Amino acid sequence: GAGVSQSPSNKVTEKGKDVELRCDPISGHTALYWYRQSLGQGLEFLIYFQGNSAPDKSGLPSDRFSAERTGGSVSTLTIQRTQQEDSAVYLCASSLGPGEGYTFGSGTRLTVV
Amino acid sequence: QKEVEQNSGPLSVPEGAIASLNCTYSDRGSQSFFWYRQYSGKSPELIMSIYSNGDKEDGRFTAQLNKASQYVSLLIRDSQPSDSATYLCAVSRPPDKLVFGAGTILRVKS
Q1: What is the pairing mode between strands A31-37 and A19-24?
Q2: Which candidate, A76, A89, A97, A90, places its Cα nearest to that of A28?
Q3: Which member of B44, B95, B102 has the closest CB to residue A98?
């Protein structure tokens, strides 16, 4: 597609429920990243996929968070047993390769009530 | 010490003036440098990239890089109210990721 597509754009969930966030990167971009941004805060790195290599999961805050990327394209970020502190905007980005500039999607605003 | 440091601002400039945004980084191995603009409630948008020492100009924007001083800056000439946003500096962390600063809030007053 022309840009990075994320869905849903907004998600309200009850504490303790699981959520799935989807990212469809720009066609041909081999690198895909997940970040989150809390209100008024900077970007927090979560996870990085590059081609068929094992993902860099070093930024995931707990084992409730996981992500996969199928066929080198679409990625899903899953948060299990959501907590209120998980409320944030989750941003997906893709790039042509390591160290290249990212193109961000419009984000998913997650609210845990 | 943070990997990428920016003054949080807000930086206020009058319309038509030059806005100067600064960023320092700690990893001497960094090779790629980027500036992103983020409007309130929106996602970051890439506006400039720079890879070698010196200046790079694109329209009203000029990025400046000094690797010896580990310093990156963004100049915005003829600032407009529409330039009001948060500007994020991003620096490559070899081999594969970008590290973002917390951002500088810019306010251009008409």
Answers
A1: unpaired
A2: A97
A3: B95
pLDDT in tens, B26-53: 999 999 999 999 999 999 999 999 999 9
Coil, strand or helix at A84: helix
Select the residue from B4, B27, B42, B43 to test the A interface by mutation, using most A Cβ atoms within 10 A: B43
- Burial of B3-33, coded b for 16+ CB within 10 Å and e otherwise, reads ebbbeeeebebeeeeebebbbbbeeeebebb
Q: Do you know the residue count of chain A?
A: 113
Residue type, B99: V
Find chain A residues with C-beta within 8 A of B90's C-beta: 101-102
Cβ(B102)–Cβ(B43) under 8 Å?
no
* Predicted pLDDT at A1: 54
Residue A41 pLDDT greater than 90, yes or no: no
